[in-house]
Amino acid sequence: MEGKLKLTVSSVDSFGLPYLLGGVPALLELSLENLSDKEFSNLKIVVSSDDGTFLSAEYNVPLLSPRETLRFSDFPSPSAEYLAELNDKTDLNILALVSKNDEVLEAVSRSLTLYPSNTWLGISFPKKIIASFVNSGDDYIKNIFSEKLSDAENIVFKERRTFEDIRNVVERIYDFILSGSVSRISNDISLFEIQKVRSFPQILESKSASLLEMSLLYLTLLEKCSVYGCLYFTEDKSSVKIGKGRDFIVVSINNLLNGLSFADNIASPDRNLIKEGVSCDLADCREDGILPLSDYDIYESVEKKSYENILFKQNSVLYEITDSKTCVFVSSPVLRRASYFIKNDVSFIFDCPVFSDYEKLYAFFIKRFIEYGKTATFLFESKGEKESFEKILESILPDVVRNNAGLIDIKALISFIFEERSPRFEKDMTVLSEEEAKLESFSSMLKDKRFCGLSFSDVVALADELSDVSSPFELSDDYVEKATMEKTREDLTLCGEFSRLAYILKDVELADLEKFGFSSLSESDIDSLKVCFEERNSSAYKLEQTERLFAEILGVEIDSYEKLRAAAELSQIILSDVFVPASLIEYKHLYDIKDIVSEVAAAGRLRDEAERFICENFNKDIFSYNAVAALKQWTEASEKRSVLRNHDYGKIKKAVAVFAFEPSKLKNEDIFIVLKRLCEYRENRDKVLTLGASVSPIFGTAWNRGYCDWDSFENCYVAACRIRKIIDGFSSKTIYGKGSRNNFILNINSDAFMKKYRPLFKTTVAEFKKLSDTEQEISKFCSDNFSELYRKYPLNEVLDITKKTESQLDYAPILCEYSKLKNSLSERGLSDIIEKIEKEPNMNESAVAFYLKSLSLSVLSLILKNNGKIVKYGGSFFKKRLDGIASVKRRVEKEENSEIFKLSVSKKRKMP
Q: What is the value of pTM for the model shown?
């Protein structure tokens, strides 16, 4: 049989869903809640769109549950004839969401003409809101709706309404809701009704918000607002898109079925675990009693506030929302590790991605927390990101930051994890070691579930932080001597490897070891990196000529990467075709005349354009004609009667025709245009002469008596400002006596000067470009951008470090092989390494020293105390080098105070 159905159409512009009633294909939700317990077939669905086509789709729909939801998309629109035929067989009720957006309202208004007479258009606010609003005594609303709605089944208009009527109704309902006149809505609201919530402009300015952030907003609304709010989640359950300037949120709860559960179904031991903020995998939770609830149960439970915890699943991470007093969001695998150190008085913890779209969103949350007397901890990956956000927050909410410093907690991730390092942290690490004592290698430890998917770069930062802790990460010599080899290996697996890794970082300048040598960097990658380093060294050495060049012509020292960049930029300006007079560069108030230059150039362009237009049809004598007075007479004549008007028009036309090349072709409308152009010419000519008098002396020949190429004129000023800024930024330290700032500025346009120095300027520009391009290639293999290194350190130190890093690439495969050995810290493991070193054909004493320095001090002590056994396994090659091990150890300790060591550690303390 053919069933009668209620078709609910979600047409929501703010989340990117196309307008159904505007006429493009849209996502539909078909609620079958009004169907009885029977199976219906031949269910005809009609959906309109703007292409004017028709479609009759038949579906066999079994009644699976009272809340069954079906989705349809991409349906063409029906014809008027088909709608009329359908009208005789079914009751087609279309409920459309009406927003304040004018485009949507216009689309709704246009679509009304497509439907038969019994079709009604409803506004999708909860019924009780509409009822309270209509019964509030507003005469306008009483005339709009068909009846009082206290007991009405449907919310309908009395007749077809215009666009203005629909817009006015929506505006009035919004104002009514936000005025606080509506009491809390009870649980009789339909599951798929779309509800209006309070407006939050700060959030809605963001282009997107994560599932976690929107969940927080949802619970805040339930707690604080008089109207319930709902969320719309995309089908992948990962994010929600919010258009700029929108003011409503939409829900489709059935998408959450696999990611939303309640603590009421959790066994008691695990409930305590969750309240402590330690999450676990979804599969484990289900084994312990978490059962997915139906859409209806979820909705009703949220509505009645009968929940204790709500767990959201995103990727493989469970997010928890506890009661309103204490909420802990575990929002990344790294933070699950940090959950051991969460304080009880923390209300909210956010793992913050750093995107400009999120900045105002975070600031809004901070403001809300302070209003309700709560605290929030915002975690950023690095100290730089943390400081950047603090500046942004201070600019957005200066008063809030100033008056509520104690309630705002913004930290870098690593410092947060280790803020309670001792003694609790050491205790936790001991527990971890006891739980898994037989980890055989560093790589296997990364896969351990207790580290929850930490990336290699995360552990690099972790190890660098731990390198400052004396115990238990560096074992004493006495401990090594007393312990058995097996026990030493087991303990060092968890503790010593961290320390060993930290020492490797002191020598290896490539920050991301995950890509560098321990896992994914192939031999071809290493070869590519070698080529990059060779090219960058070649460019760097050629750029040493730039130091000599600028010492000679400017008397300054190019002693940093930033000054080298400035020198390259200055060289490029000098090589360009822009003429920059010395008087302009030296002008005392150069930066203050920016507006005058722009205004003169704009007036000059208008003057020249008017002059070209007039000279096409008139001789130059016309510029002596009093066009201002003539235009005034012409305007006054236009208000007179026709006889007098034509008389005055003729006099002016005759006076202008004297200057025309073809007077007979002039018409009255042409005269008016010519007079306006003459007035425009005179006005801008006077402006150029007046303003130009103040700048013409310093621009010299570039001014050309006020008739210059105005683009070149402005480019000349811009180039002068850039040159002046660059020169002022250079050190004033004199290298050679003949080089000076004044001589450089005076000779910058000299042919002899350019003939002598042009090749060096070209070399500076070309080689610096190669240097920058090579850095980009290197950054593909390494997480840290190498340009940071060259901006902060003198060039001679940079070259030394680069050369050192390049040599280390030769031994990356050895380190890679070393990390894969299962018994790397045992006697046999050491002998295996020694054998591999001995087999390397290009291995020399410095390479062995490099390898030994990659070991921790504990392992070096182990080698020294077991030298007889190791020599037995190591062979003659290693015996020759054994005498230098002690000196290597001293060198490792000594290098802690070196510049290169400080550079390496400072880089690694950033979260990659």
A: 0.34
